[in-house]
């Protein structure tokens, strides 16, 4: 993996260790949330794909029926049906509006068809019944084409949502893979590096304390030896003054007395 063996350049301190652990916890939670989001989007993606397949399968039959209805209307009403219908139309009664649907934080565009009541009232279906030999067939053609438009609007909504979900799933999966294979391994390697450096610093401090203790112990022993020598020199000087002998003779006399006391004790 690209994140394995890599780490962030940080100062190995206890504070930075806490920061890296907090970032690792955040990355773990973010990875779990993004994974759930990806799963939810994938479920919705598959549902939309099934709807697209079923809608396309039904669209062929509906488009065939609308085309055949138009042919029947032309045959029944004559060649001038197009001009007569266009003259009777003022505004579209079937309209399309868009809205947004939120799925796991992704806004999917939705298209809906609806009938404009004002336009429908201004041009009632009964207005075309006066056409010679073709009023009923024109109405049947109109209904067939309305069904075709409804299917096309639904298919456009599904395909737009399909493309939006596909891009969102790719982006989410890239983030999931980045967190799983790059960010989290780098944070874990950084935490292990900081722990290793802190352990090494702790061992260095322990060794330093041992060296300091040894130095202090030797210094105390040296001071005790110096104090003992000073006491012996002072005592030898007093003996030398009392008995009128030299310092070496006084030292020898003190040493002989000390050895005699040891022999008496043993």
From TrEMBL:
<dbReference type="GO" id="GO:0046961">
    <property type="term" value="F:proton-transporting ATPase activity, rotational mechanism"/>
</dbReference>
<keyword id="KW-0406">Ion transport</keyword>
<keyword id="KW-0378">Hydrolase</keyword>
<dbReference type="InterPro" id="IPR002699">
    <property type="entry name" value="V_ATPase_D"/>
</dbReference>
<keyword id="KW-0813">Transport</keyword>
<dbReference type="Pfam" id="PF01813">
    <property type="entry name" value="ATP-synt_D"/>
</dbReference>
<protein>
    <submittedName>
        <fullName>V-type proton ATPase subunit D</fullName>
        <ecNumber>3.6.3.14</ecNumber>
    </submittedName>
</protein>
<comment type="similarity">
    <text>Belongs to the V-ATPase D subunit family.</text>
</comment>
<dbReference type="GO" id="GO:0016787">
    <property type="term" value="F:hydrolase activity"/>
</dbReference>
């Amino acid at each position: 993996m690209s994140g394995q063996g890599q780490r962030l350049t940080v100062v190995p301190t206890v504070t930075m260790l806490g920061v890296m652990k907090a970032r690792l916890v955040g990355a773990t939670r973010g990875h779990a949330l993004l994974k759930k989001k990806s799963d939810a989007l994938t479920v919705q993606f598959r549902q939309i794909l099934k709807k697209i397949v079923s809608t396309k399968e039904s669209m062929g039959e509906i488009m065939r029926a609308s085309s055949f209805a138009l042919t029947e209307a032309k045959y029944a009403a004559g060649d001038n049906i197009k001009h007569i219908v266009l003259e009777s139309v003022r505004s579209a009664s079937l309209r399309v509006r868009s809205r947004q649907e939120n799925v796991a934080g992704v806004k999917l565009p939705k298209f809906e068809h609806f009938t404009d009541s004002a336009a429908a009232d201004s041009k009632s279906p009964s207005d075309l019944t006066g056409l010679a030999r073709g009023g009923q067939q024109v109405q049947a053609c109109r209904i067939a084409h309305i069904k075709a438009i409804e299917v096309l609007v639904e298919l456009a909504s599904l395909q737009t949502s399909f493309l939006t979900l596909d891009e969102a799933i790719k982006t989410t999966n890239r983030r999931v893979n980045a967190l799983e294979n790059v960010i989290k391994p780098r944070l874990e390697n950084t935490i292990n590096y900081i722990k290793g450096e802190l352990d090494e610093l702790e061992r260095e401090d322990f060794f330093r304390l041992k060296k300091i203790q040894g130095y202090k112990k030797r210094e105390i022993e040296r001071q005790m030896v110096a104090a003992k020598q000073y006491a012996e020199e002072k005592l030898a000087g007093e003996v030398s003054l009392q008995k009128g002998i030299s310092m070496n003779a006084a030292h020898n006399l003190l040493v002989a007395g000390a050895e005699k006391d040891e022999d008496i004790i043993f």
